[in-house]
């Protein structure tokens, strides 16, 4: 059915009201103006009592000094006539279709928060968020996503701390250049030393052979000189000696060739390593510890990055969930169990933004209720009030509001309990019964 609005209301002797008549604008903002203490808020309290039931009944509903009981008369756009009058202010709901009517019927289309907007505005952040989630129907899914995100963020925070600690530990470890990557065994060094000494021993033998051949050649030279003096006698012997000499010279040449390229290997480094093996292994272990610490830090960083990706995916899923929901206002969302509008939480919103958000949410709670009551609109300047009224009208919503002042923005002015569209009469006579309305 079409949303139900207030066509007209007539109020008398309620709280500060003496006599008020109002025909609110069907779509848009109807502002009740006047100074403080004149009865503006009493109009809203009277509407709430008439339509919302005795839970909205003022503690002292009768106007001070009046001998006539309160009289409330409201006509709704669906044809219902709602009245409270007489000594007990009993409710009477008249249905033009003849259906049985009463508070139960009113409760089917009247949204409680539309009568009591401050109840929503004064609720805590989670209560406001729960109200919105009730409207869009994604509360369980959103809370589950929020819990998953919270768990992942906490896990990432822990891993991030571990990664930072391990990276810091790795950075603090010493590192030595030109050091083997594996620990050195003393037995291996000794074996290598013995192999070098063995090779050096072979070299020494070859050098001794050169010396031996050199000595033998010298002796043969002396023999040759001696034999040459006796050439006639020893010609045969000379020839033999020459042959021996030639053979020796050949052996000498070979020995010299072998010895020419020989180079002894130094065992100084090995001897030094053997002497300093504990210090060297200490440096190797330090390097291994640093490399292990860096590898551990990389592993934790990889875990951290993977959790970041999961968190981002969950947040995208959360954004899509809200974007696909039927929100009462664009840019309205929920973060950390709190309402946000244009990225701001409730306490950072302007007063006009708070009213706009509250009105939109309350309207969405029960689309059949086409009106909302708003008190104290003086927090808005004239331009903001105009923009708010245009938004209300665009939404097809009826808003009845109060505002301190008597400017052109006011639809009626309340002064001393009277609306300015009523001729003041004797206070002892009921105005509406006289036919004023």
UniProtKB/TrEMBL annotation:
- Residue ranges annotated for the Rad50/SbcC-type AAA domain, each copy included: 8-285
Q: Which domain of life is it from?
A: Bacteria
Quick check: keyword Protease in the entry? no
Keyword Coiled coil in annotation: yes
Coiled-coil residues are 224-324
Q: Which Pfam families match?
A: AAA_23 (PF13476)
**Keywords from the UniProt entry:** Coiled coil
Instruction: Output the InterPro entries linked to this UniProt entry.
Output: P-loop_NTPase, Rad50/SbcC_AAA
This chain's protein is named AAA family ATPase
């Amino acid at each position: 059915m079409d949303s139900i609005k207030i066509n007209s209301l007539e109020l008398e002797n309620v709280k500060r009201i003496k006599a008020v008549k109002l025909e609110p604008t069907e779509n848009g903002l109807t502002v009740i103006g006047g100074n403080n203490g004149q009865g503006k808020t009493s109009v809203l309290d009277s509407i709430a009592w008439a339509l919302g039931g005795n839970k909205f009944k003022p503690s002292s509903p009768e106007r001070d000094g009046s001998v006539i009981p309160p009289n409330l008369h409201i006509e709704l756009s669906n044809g219902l006539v709602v009245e409270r009058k007489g000594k007990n202010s009993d409710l009477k709901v008249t249905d033009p279709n003849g259906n049985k009517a009463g508070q139960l019927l009113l409760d089917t289309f009247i949204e409680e928060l539309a009568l009591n907007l401050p109840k929503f505005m004064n609720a805590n952040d989670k209560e406001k968020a729960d109200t919105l989630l009730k409207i869009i129907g994604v509360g369980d899914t959103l809370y589950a996503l929020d819990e998953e995100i919270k768990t992942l963020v906490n896990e990432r925070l822990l891993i991030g701390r571990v990664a930072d600690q391990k990276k810091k530990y790795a950075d603090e470890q010493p590192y030595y250049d030109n050091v083997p990557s594996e620990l050195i065994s003393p037995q291996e060094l000794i074996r290598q030393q013995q192999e070098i000494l063995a090779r050096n021993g072979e070299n020494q033998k070859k050098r001794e052979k050169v010396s031996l051949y050199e000595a033998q050649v010298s002796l043969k030279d002396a023999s040759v000189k001696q034999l040459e003096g006796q050439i006639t006698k020893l010609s045969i012997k000379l020839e033999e000696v020459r042959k021996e000499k030639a053979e020796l010279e050949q052996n000498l040449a070979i020995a010299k060739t072998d010895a020419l390229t020989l180079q002894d290997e130094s065992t100084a480094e090995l001897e030094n390593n053997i002497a300093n093996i504990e210090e060297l292994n200490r440096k190797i272990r330090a390097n291994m510890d640093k490399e292990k610490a860096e590898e551990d830090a990389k592993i934790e960083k990889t875990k951290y990055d993977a959790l970041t990706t999961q968190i981002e995916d969950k947040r995208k899923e959360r954004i899509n969930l809200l974007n696909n929901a039927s929100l009462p206002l664009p840019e309205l969302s929920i973060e950390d169990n709190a309402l946000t509008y244009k990225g701001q939480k409730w306490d950072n919103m302007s007063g006009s933004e708070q009213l706009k958000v509250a009105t939109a949410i309350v309207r969405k709670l029960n689309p059949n209720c086409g009106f909302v009551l708003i008190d104290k609109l003086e927090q808005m300047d004239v331009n903001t009030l105009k923009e708010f009224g245009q938004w209300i009208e665009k939404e097809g919503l009826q808003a009845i509001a109060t505002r301190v002042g008597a400017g052109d923005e006011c639809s009626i002015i309340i002064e001393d309990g009277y609306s300015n569209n009523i001729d003041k009469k004797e206070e002892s006579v009921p105005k509406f019964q006289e036919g004023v309305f």
